[in-house]
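Subject: for your reference before the review

Hello V.,

The reviewers asked for a structural picture of the protein, and I figured it would be easier to keep everything in one thread rather than splitting it across files. Below is the amino acid sequence we used in the manuscript, unchanged from the supplementary table.
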Amino acid sequence: MARIGSLLVLLSLACSLTLCIGDDESNYGGNRGNLSPGFYSSSCPKAEEIVKSVVAQAVARETRMAASLMRLHFHDCFVQGCDGSLLLDTSGSIVTEKSSNPNSRSARGFEVVDQIKAALENECPGTVSCADVLTLAARDSSVLTGGPSWMVPLGRRDSTTASLSGSNNNIPAPNNTFNTILSRFTNQGLDLTDLVALSGSHTIGFSRCTSFRQRLYNQSGNGSPDSTLEQSYAANLRQMCPRSGGDQNLSELDINSAGRFDNSYFKNLIENMGLLNSDQVLFSSNEESSELVKKYAEDQEEFFEQFAESMVKMGNISPLTGSSGEIRKNCRKVNS
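And here is what came back from the structure prediction:
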C-alpha cells in the first residue's frame, strides 16, 4: 500500500498534508516563496475552473496536447525557474526560448495557453500569472489522461526576461548520458527520485525521429545501433525513422498507451523498449534508478504518488513572488 493511499484521489480533503503545501521548504526544492493553493481564492475564485475547462477542450480535440502542455511546464521551470519565460516571443532585448534546441519545432501548446489567459483576463484582469497557468495546465493534463491530481501551490509571477542560453544548457537532451541528465536535475534542486518519477510523464505523448535516430543507427559514433534497444522494437522504429529524412516523423513515447497516463512506461524500460536514450538509461545505467523503475512498474499507485510530489517540487523552482516580476496581460510579451 502506498504511503499516502487515496491522497491523490481525495487530495482536496487533505490539503494540510505536506504534499499540498509543505511546511518544510526542503521537501519542495526551496525558494517556494509565498505560494499557496488558495492564492486566488478571493481575487479570482474561478481561476482553476477556467484553466481546466480550456485544457479539457484542447485535450478532447487532440489527446497529444496533454503531453505538450506538461512539457511546456517542465521546459519553463528548468530555465530561470517557473516564471513563464518560455512563453515570451522575441521582442526588443528579449530573445525567445522557443528557438532553443530543446524547443525549436517541438514545443507546442502556446495557442492553448493564449486561450486560457484570454479567458482569465476576461474573468479577472491582471490577476493570474502565465507561470501559474502553465503549472495548473500541467496538473490538469495529468488528470484528463487518467493520471494523478494534486493541490497546486499558486502565486507565481511572470518574468520580464527570457534566457535562450539557459534553455539550451539546462534542459536535458534525449541523447544525454544518465550522469548528465541527473546533474541537470540536481542543479534545479531535484534528486534522482524526482528524475525517475518525472520521466514517467513520457507515458503520454510522442517524440520526433530526430530525437531518437542516433539510437537506431549510430549510438556511439561507430555506426552501430544502441545495444540496449530491443531488436524487434528497433526494427519497427526504423520503418518510420529512416537514416536520413523524416525528422518530424512521430513515434509514441509509450508504445502501449501513448494517450493514457499510467505506469506502462516503466514496464517498457524493463523490456528495453524505452524510446529515447534518456528514458532507457534510467533502467540500464544506474542501480538506484533501476530499482525505482522496477518499483513504479509494479505499483502504479506508488508512481502516481511520487509523480504528484515531484511535480509540486518542480513547480516550486525559484518562483517570482511578491513584487518581483509582473502579471502579464499577454503571455507572449511583457507589459508595456
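For the response letter, the relevant points are probably these. The chain is about 45% helix and 0% strand. The first helix runs from residue 47 to 61.

Happy to draft the paragraph if you're swamped.

O.
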